[in-house]
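Pinned message: reference record for Molybdate transport system ATP-binding protein
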Amino acid sequence: MSAQVEVVVAERGVDVAFDVADGETVALLGPNGAGKSTTLAVLGGLLRPDAGRVLLDGEELTGPGRWVAPHARRTALLAQDPLLFPHLSVLENVAFGPRSTGSGRRAARTAAGHWLGEVDAAELAGRRPAQLSGGQAQRVAVARALAAEPRLLLLDEPMAALDVAVAPALRALLRRVLADRTTVIVTHHVLDALLLADRVVVLDGGRVVEQGATADVLSRPRSGFAARFAGLNLVAGTATPDGVRRPDGLLLHGTPGDPPPVDGADAVAVFRPSAVAVHAQPPGGSPRNVLPVVVTELEPLGDLVRVRAGELAADVTMASVAELGLAPGAAVTFVVKATEVEVYAR
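Predicted structure (tokens):
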């Protein structure tokens, strides 16, 4: 099933459009308030947009003078909270999906048993939701969503409420069951995008600011949010023969990407925080990019510390933090070699 999505919700400042190919998983990324959950609500029929259309395999679900009720869309929404019926057993919870689409009790229970097996939860069939752990409940919720045989599966941060020890198992499960299933997932976790999504659509301020194949967007981001999401630095400006010139005039030297940006066109320079050295004073020596910054935040990363300075970041050792006296408000210099910087058209 393919989907074409146009969503306009004026009150929330949302105006986005994108497509989902048959059997494709698309991840919606963006900061809080970007319009991700609003878009998902329109797809599921939980919110009427002010304008736009939602087509699923050519059938108009939302459009001028057309509105298909949520239960008639054959879409399934899996949220952070499993939302299992507390008075029903696990088996009956999962059987609810096929029952709601017209299956008889026996057929529904057979389908429920099948999907519980698919999510490695067959042994939970007789339990009530109160007897399940968070990870178990979310597995059952996945089975219930899939048992309804939805034409479009909607996932709204399904692992956000799970313990970090449980999330990897559910992520592996979703990677297996989402294969060849048309899906839209909202996530704030880079691993979800990398492991589950074929493409990503980046929203910011209610608009699509970037989209493309997951690996391409996360390795060569064109938007600030995508760069931060991927753990990369991004400097926007104008392409020059040597790199990117920021609006304040500072030139960041780098290596042109493929295809190289046209001189004078909008461009971005991308580099890893691990490629950045932090100095108390601007260094001399070989040609390097020297960026005067003010530290805004220190973020522990295991044996390293991520030093944030506004939109830029550098990864340094604990010893360097102490030696340089790094703290919010400290004026330092970020230095990165030109060979570590890649330049792309924006």
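Pinned by admin. Summary line: The domain at 3-219 is CATH 3.40.50.300 (Rossmann fold).
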